[in-house]
Amino acid sequence: MSYELNYTVGSIPLDKLKPKKVRKNIELTLWERLYIPEIARGMIVTTRHFIVNMVGFIFPPEGKKRKIFTVYYPEEKLTIHVAYRGRPVLVQREDGKEKCIACGLCERICPAFAISIIGGERQRGNDMERYPVSYTLDMSRCVYCGLCEEVCPYEAIVMSNEYEGLAEYDRENMIYPKEKLLVPVAKLQKRIEYVRKIYGKSNYDLRNMI
Amino acid sequence: MFYIIGGVAVLSALIMVTNKKPVSAAMSLIVVMFCLAGIYVILDAHLIAALQIIVYAGAIMVLFLFVIMLLNIQEKEGRVAKHKIFFQFTWILATGYVFINMVKLIGAGDLPARMEGNIDGFGTTRVVAEILFTDFLLPFEIASILLLAAIVGAVILAKAKIE
Amino acid sequence: MFAELIEAIAKILFIFGVNMGFFAPILGWVERKQSAVMQDRIGANRADILGFTLIGLLHPLTDTIKILTKEDFIPAGANKLFHTLAPFISLTPALITFAVIPFGGQYEIFGHRVNLVIADLDVGILFIFAFASLATYGSVLAGWSSNNNWSFLGGLRAAAQMLSYEVAMGLSIIGIIMVYGSLKLTEIGAMQVDLFKWGIFLQPVGFILFLTCAIAENKRVPFDIPEAETEIVAGYFTEYSSMKFIMFWMAEFLEVVTISGIVTTLFLGAWHLPFVSGEKLLSLFGFAGPNLSIVLLMLTNIATFFAKVIFFIWLQMTIRWTLPRFRYDQIMKLGWKIILPLALINIFITGLVMLLK
Amino acid sequence: MVPLNHYLILSAVLFSIGAVGVFTRRNALIIYMCIELMLNAVNLTFIAFSKFLNNMDGHIFTFMVMTVAAAEAAVGLAIIISMFRNKETVNVDEINLMKG
What we know:
The complex is a heterotetramer. By secondary structure, chain A is an alpha+beta fold. Chain A has 2 domains: 30-70, no CATH class; 88-209, 2-Layer Sandwich (Alpha-Beta Plaits). Chain A contains 7 helices and 8 strands. Chain A has a 3-stranded mixed beta sheet with strand order 6-3-8. In chain A, strands 4-5-7 form a 3-stranded antiparallel beta sheet. The model of chain A has no long low-confidence stretch (mean pLDDT 79). In chain B, helix 1 (2-18) packs antiparallel against helix 2 and helix 2 packs antiparallel against helix 3. The longest helix of chain B has 27 residues, at 82-108. Chain B is globular. In chain D, 50% of the residues are buried. Chain D is mostly helical. In chain D, helix 1 runs antiparallel to helix 2 and helix 2 packs antiparallel against helix 3 (57-87). Chain D contains 3 helices and no strands. Chain D starts with a helix and ends in a 13-residue tail after the last helix. At the B-D interface, helix 1, helix 2, helix 3, helix 4 and helix 5 of B face helix 1, helix 2 and helix 3 of D.
């Protein structure tokens, strides 16, 4: 199963986009080499923005929002795209247990050595299953690369869209135990689907086959 | 006022001569230049005082500092050879002798008493310029040629690459 | 004698208060806010007292408190004396140069003659150049004494750049001196009564050259290679913190004000309003009696002067936020190969025109 | 009012200090600085005489001396730079060859 991303630039899809002509080895015309007129032109542009925004500050136009890109962060928040790699979290099954089987792949791949797992076994129905007795993620080391998510065969660890409250004054608080990492699967459904698409994981999700 | 400035000038000059670090020496020389500019102001030579700061403190000494920093001279002056110490001592004695004679001359010579009254606008730009561009026009032009020669010489000297 | 003393103290206090109390803190705010407005942003507006943010005007205050309570740090291996001295050397010229810039004409108030300049020197412009050249030492020494490679590079660049542009700046101003025939800034200001006697109309080339050189002397963008933060951290003041850092910062902003003052005095008609002469204003203020009308005229002139200064500050800020930084070789090329010959040609043509007149 | 001889003595002191520096120091840069100091001392004499004789010629001489000093500094520093390039030192004792 392949997945096609439909990128767009503005409203034009990528394949319809014509390459813009780039001037390489620029030879300036005499007018441009005088430099002063070009400086004046640049300053006219900035001054125009200045004046337009200045008027906008003093008499804010009604209805139409000003052309200002600043987001007042704590009050306003940007909608996070599903591709955003926030805090890595463990997926919690519907029955409240973790999906992780403590295979240790994420521990192995982690470039920052942030993950450490102690595995164990427990009863599930009639079968035994592996589970992490402890799963600690050192958030002071995590580099948000997303390799753990990519390597995980069971979709047990995914990158959430949380990006707040990760800074601490104490390093001890930044070591996250399993309980702190677990997030119900319902909340992560979008990301899991996205991960399936980009890594083609749906092919070998053993849990779904069984 | 004169004595304060003069004292500071002499002190800084001594620091300059005795200091090991070139940068400190340059900075004390700048202080000397400043003091001299102050003395020029006392002597009503405002234009020369301004030029003193612009040319000496502003241009020449910055050039010195630039060169000191560019070459980054960290090495300390090594010990002087024995025979050279003797030479140096002789030189200091000779200079002292000359200095004593100068002071004697200054004390003995009948120096002109201070002239009464000043010429109109003594030391102002206008008066200096009038004399410079009438009586001293030829030296002025020669000085400009000298400067040109110095520019060319400096460029050629500094541009020469090691073979 | 007593009246003169009071006058002198009042003038010094006025200039000092305007510079240190108004311009130095407010320019930090202006720079942040103006750049924000120019770039479709909002800019600093979070510092508040009881919920009043005053469009970010409290930020200079909070910045000052924050910087002053920081540790004053002298790096290991630094030359302590020069490291401490350098910010003072930087700040002093910026403060002193304003002494010779007239911010108003001469007035007879209550039988007392008021000359609105702190020191009416015969060598006014040369005085400015003398102290502008001293500002070089501040940055060079700061760079050298910090015992840091970035600082050192910044100091070297500052020395080379400021030395080069001093020459060009001196030559670019000669034209205007020739036209007005005086070095005295009060005389030059008094001569620009008529709009068409303003320096900018008599010496347009000199104006552009001088403004360029002055900005280069001040080491601001596009000539900020001594402190290019993308290349050498912060250049010559990398190793500075606390009070000393704020002194470099203040020196830069005060120099912006000083440059605006000089340009206003030399090229933009000093304290004169265009089209409205002093006599006309005086007759306009006639209702207030002979003495008060002169006071009103004086205040108008001071306001005019500072309005022009503020315009030039705005212009310099606009330049600073519009242009990208020059490369080192480009700066040297511009200084020696373009501005210097242009200034010489300007002098030559000025002399020719004056001779033929 | 300060009499003329005090100016002259100050000038003599500075000149002597400069001379001692030229003779004893071996860093070429400092020797140049000492020469500048001597020139300055002479300038002071010129200006002092100019003031006391009420004659502006001293100013002109000072002007010329400054020109010469500037020229000398430019050429001298260029020489020092090329010297340093070739011999890696600015110690005048170690530069004892007329060529190279």
